[in-house]
Amino acid sequence: MKKIELSTLQKLQLSVLKEVDRICKKHGIKYYLIGGTLIGAIRHKGFIPWDDDIDIAMMRLDYDRFIKCSEEELNSKYFIQNYNTDIDFYHALTRICIKGTFVEDKHTKHLKCHKETYIDIFPLDNVPDDEEELKKQKRKILLVDKILKYKACILHENGVLYSKFLIKKFLSVILKPISQRTLYNYRQKYMKKYFGQNTLRVSSTASKYGFSKQIMLKSIYGDPTMVEFEGGMYPAPQDWEYYLNHLYGNYMSLPPKDARMPTSEVYQI
Fold first, then answer.
1. Between the CA of residue 206 and those of 2, 90, 269, what are the distances in Å?
2. Looking at per-residue confidence, does 241 or 180 come out higher?
3. Rounded to an integer, what distance in angstroms lies between the CA atom of residue 73 and that of residue 8?
4. How far from 146 is each of 42, 83, 149, 173, CA to CA, in Å?
5. 153 or 148: which carries more pLDDT confidence?
6. Regarding beta strands 201-203 and 118-127, do their DSSP bridges make them parallel or antiparallel, or are they unpaired?
7. Cα(178)–Cα(143) distance, integer angstroms
8. Domain residue ranges in the chain
9. What is the dihedral of CA 66, 70, 75, 76, to 10 degrees?
10. Lateral strand order in the sheet of 101-104
């Protein structure tokens, strides 16, 4: 295997974004640049110089439509990865992966799921306006996520002692009778509980920033605002400034130099 340089990796991922954009335009599917990709668009008019992935989001209805359209139209250089296509995949989102690549990830190397490089597509789901109902939804989603991670024995670098790994390993054995599919179905059920209801807010419940921090008024996303990214124009949340301030605070400030590095190593195979 040959390591892919960051500049080449970014070009590969940009090609995936262009393919997603093509399908979305053809079928009238609305999507948004989010997360670090949106910071890059606003601060650098492209990738954050050390960033190695792309994040976008879609409202649940558009998200489901996009998956269906992509199953029929996606360029053969790429493939869809989610609960339904990869049984060992435990994230509650969809990835468009690039064939012929491999991502080195010591936390998931024991899993049998595909490990190609990708762009992330996050569903935006309705959340209830009633705060007590919101707490219930949050608790159920977090519980299923915790069980999924224990079952998969996912490791994390920060503060994980060997004894904690043994506990996770033990729990993964205890949880073996519970199928991945059962847990996935529960996760989807709790995410989509308020689908079709006229709620004011949505949340990207699969985000690493957490359920609560991702809760925003639908109007924040609204009708997309076009922003420049790597020489093209792509959709961002209507009120992208609120979105970025809410998640990151002063998003125009650069992080410390020792934090300006890619999060993974990607290889050509």
1. 31, 10, 29
2. 241
3. 25
4. 34, 16, 5, 15
5. 148
6. antiparallel
7. 14
8. 2-128+199-268
9. 150
10. 2-3, 265-268, 101-104
Neighbour-count burial of 205, counting CB atoms closer than 10 A to its CB (0-12 exposed, 13-18 middle, 19+ buried)? buried
Query: For residue 205, what are its two tokens?
Result: 């419940």
* Contact status, residue 93 vs residue 122, Cβ threshold 8 Å: yes
- Residue 259 pLDDT greater than 50, yes or no: yes
DSSP annotation string for the chain: -EEPPHHHHHHHHHHHHHHHHHHHHHHT---EE-HHHHHHHHHHSSS-TT----EEEEEHHHHHHHHHHHHHHS-TTEEEESTTT-TT---SSEEEEETTEEEE-TTSTTS-S----EEEEEEEEEE-SSHHHHHHHHHHHHHHHHHHHHHHT---STT--HHHHHHHHHHHHHTTTS-HHHHHHHHHHHHTTTTTS--SEEE-TTSTT-TTTT-EEHHHHSSPEEEEETTEEEEE-TTHHHHHHHHHSSTTSPPPGGG-S-S-EEEE-
Count, residues in the chain:
269
Name the pLDDT band for 170 (thresholds 50, 70, 90). low
Yes or no: say if 124 and 35 are a contact pair by the CB < 8 Å rule.
no
Cα atoms found within 13 Å of the Cα of residue 53, Cβ hemisphere only: 20
User: What are residue 23's phi and psi, to 5 degrees?
Assistant: -65, -40
- CA-to-CA distance for 218 and 130, rounded, in angstroms? 16
pLDDT exceeds cutoff 80 at 162:
no
Pick the CATH number of 2-128+199-268 from 3.40.50, 3.30.450, 3.30.460, 2.60.120: 3.30.460
